[in-house]
Amino acid sequence: MADFQQNGNITTLHNLRCRRPEHLTHEIAVMAETRKITLILPSLYSELEGPALPGILDELSKVSYLHRIIIGLDQADEAQYRHARAFFSRLPQDHVVVWNDSPRLTALQSRLADLGLGPVEPGKGKNVWSCIGYMLARADSSIMAIHDCDILTYRREMLDRLVYPVVNPSFPYQMAKGFYPRVGPDKLNGRVTRLLVSPLLIALKKVIGDRDYIDYLRSFRYPLSGEFAMRTPVLADLRIPSDWGLEIGVLSEAWRNLAPKSVCQVEIADNYDHKHQDLSPEDASRGLSRMSTDICKAIFRKLAADGTVFTPNTFRTLKATYYRSALDLLEGYYSDARMNGLSLDRHKEEKSIELFAENLIRAGQIFLDKPNETPFIPTWNRVHAADPQFLGDMVEAVAADLDEFTPAGNS
User: Fold this and answer.
1) Rounded Cα distance, 89 and 97, in Å
2) Per-residue pLDDT reduced to its tens digit, 310-319
3) How far is CA 140 from CA 145, 171, 189, 403, in A?
4) DSSP conformation letters of 15-36
5) Per-residue model confidence as pLDDT tens digits over 343-363
6) Distance (Å, rounded) from C-alpha 124 to C-alpha 233?
7) H/E segment holding residue 388
8) Global confidence as pTM
9) Helices (DSSP H) in 195-309: which residue ranges?
């Protein structure tokens, strides 16, 4: 049974299970006639070969209110791009595959690099940023939604509930963030949120004192979810992080640009499962090890931008406080799992906490050693100011790729 608790910082929209899904879908379809909705799917080519994406397409094929679907395709060669075109061709909606590694788009990225505005590194952040640019260039959508391509439990109702708060013109929300429980068939999931983000925010409040930004982040039930929707006027000034701090970075941008009353979180699923990253304790550049470092850096950067002064002593104290807070929370997670018949390996959980504690120090050292590091991709407003033709040329490049490279099996 869902609750109806509000935290006072942002609005929480619950699923009280008292409305039939088709009624919500119909209402969205009516509103979408004048407030067009575009869905962005950032995808690695490898996800086309995984178990989740075919099911996602089956569900999306039933969604009639989408104006356009933009698929950002990463890590694909020409043959794989052709195959991706064929793979996504069963979508009945207007859709486009943006081949981020195409010669034309690579040349455009070099053009930005010459201006000092190119993305620092490839990854999900760059993919999302490119798709947003393409959507802004088309200039025919009022709402943007994003979700990942590895959701094993995907249902079209997830998208309905995600977009409703921002497509409804009587609501004040400029951004909606999805949340859900991370519970598998027999265990509690969501390690990075449970064992890193939650105890880190508790520790930060103890070490540096009350900060509105910390209370804001703590208000989100699942701050690392990859599902969010925004009204398009927000997007041109959105600073997309270039590392794995994308989700925290977007929340931080909403904090910077929007009033709290304009941000909400919405319950989109009773159950959610996706591809699980390896912990990768032996390699700090991969898996949850890298993710945890990037998340910490994103939070530290935002607090510093708001005037917090960090020193090596701050990070040493923060590590000790985080470690104790994480162990205290682990006790609660263990009890919750046991009461609900779920397994939770306390040894592995504590090993994760130990790794995250070390990465907290690593993130702090990187933050101190590289004070001039620019962690964000430039906003699209800045790109347009530096190169007014860029977005138009991007649309032409995507169209030229579509014309030149026919889908696999259609040549």
Assistant:
1) 10
2) 999 999 999 9
3) 14, 21, 39, 22
4) --S-S-HHHHHHHHHHHHTTS-
5) 999 999 999 999 999 999 999
6) 22
7) none
8) 0.94
9) 198-208, 212-218, 246-257, 287-305
